[in-house]
Design a protein that fits this description.
Length: about 350
């Protein structure tokens, strides 16, 4: 078949090719909504679009007690409106009406401050209850994702020990989720497990919650932050080439504190605000990933539907809303030459 030069140019502009996979030339630019406790309206989506974002991420939480390992979620009960099906359906509908896309990313919360990445059920309990209840939880939301037209579904978030200990379970779960959702999948690996996930070839994206430690320097300069990112970016590039998948930052964010780049996963509610440090950390992130062929985009952690009402929840935490870092994110999402 004869292809005209103009047709070839159109194809090249539409896609970047990595191995056998095509990704959008325009990276995913999204925000992770902190689930609204009460119903919100279209203004919440207008605020997202105002910064140039074209994706949202919705996160219905489930809860587990380490004592019994059972995953519990209450879709029609006492969870926040934004975590229940009624809220998810409404927020997907509002996003779609504005031409935006949606990732649904279930999260598991462990009691007693436990971390899902290291949790393994006690030998007296065994794996059966944990696996069965987690499967039911994920399949419930995979089905809801298909019904609502969600564009990307995340099968798990930061579950390193579970993934490494039970690979056969996860492959069977992927089969079931694929049947229920019938769309593209990812998994949100913690920054320190991303190299070891065994099923990346079955995912559309390598998903990573990108809280890589960048530098322990006090008040680091932008150049120091960029230097700190280089080994992590190089490792992600190598992983992408090895498994033939692009990398999506399923979460990325920095607290508004001076030490935000040293331990980005950590919060210190007592630390004073440092908007300049948060802003530089965001700028270094974008500088390190921008225009890389393996970079598929990012979701900002995190975003409040009513930031004025949620000021107490935000504190000096991760949200860039109302901070100097918001100008950095907006400029990147809207284009480097756009006015803030």
């Amino acid at each position: 078949m004869y292809l005209t030069r103009s047709f070839l140019k159109l194809v090249c502009c539409a896609f970047v090719v990595i191995g056998t996979w095509r990704i959008q030339a325009q990276p995913i630019e999204g925000v992770c909504f902190s689930a609204p406790a009460e119903e919100v309206g279209d203004a919440s989506m207008a605020q997202v679009q105002a910064i140039g974002a074209d994706w949202i991420c919705l996160m219905p939480y489930a809860f587990a007690r380490t004592e019994d390992g059972l995953v519990r979620f209450d879709p029609d009960g006492h969870q926040y409106w934004g975590e229940r099906p009624v809220g998810i359906r409404a927020m997907v509908r509002m996003a779609k009406a504005r031409g935006m896309k949606v990732m649904l990313k279930p999260h598991l919360w462990l009691g007693h401050g436990g971390f899902t990445g290291t949790y393994v059920p006690d030998s007296a309990i065994g794996w059966e209850g944990y696996e069965r209840s987690y499967r039911d939880y994920i399949l419930y939301f995979a089905t809801l994702a298909r019904e609502t037209g969600v564009d990307l579904f995340c099968i798990g978030t930061e579950m390193q020990a579970f993934v490494q200990a039970r690979p056969a379970y996860w492959n069977k779960l992927i089969d079931k989720v694929s049947d229920a959702y019938q769309g593209p999948l990812t998994y949100a690996a913690n920054w320190d497990e991303v190299q070891d996930v065994p099923f990346w070839s079955r995912m559309r994206f390598i998903g990573v919650d990108g809280y890589f430690p960048i530098t322990a320097e006090p008040a680091p300069s932008l150049s120091a932050l960029e230097a700190g990112w280089r080994p992590h970016a190089e490792a992600l590039a190598q992983l992408s080439a090895r498994v033939d998948r692009p990398v999506l930052f399923t979460e990325i964010g920095y607290c508004c504190t001076s030490a935000c780049a040293a331990r980005p996963w950590s919060e210190d509610p007592e630390a004073p605000l440092d908007e300049a440090a948060q802003s530089r950390a965001w700028q270094a992130f974008f500088n390190a990933q921008r225009d890389k062929p393996w970079y598929a985009g990012c979701f900002v952690w995190k975003w409040f539907a009513a930031p004025d009402l949620d000021e107490e929840r935000r504190g000096n935490g991760f949200s860039p809303q109302g901070r100097a870092a918001m100008d950095v994110v907006r400029k990147e999402f809207k284009g480097r030459n756009a006015a803030p």
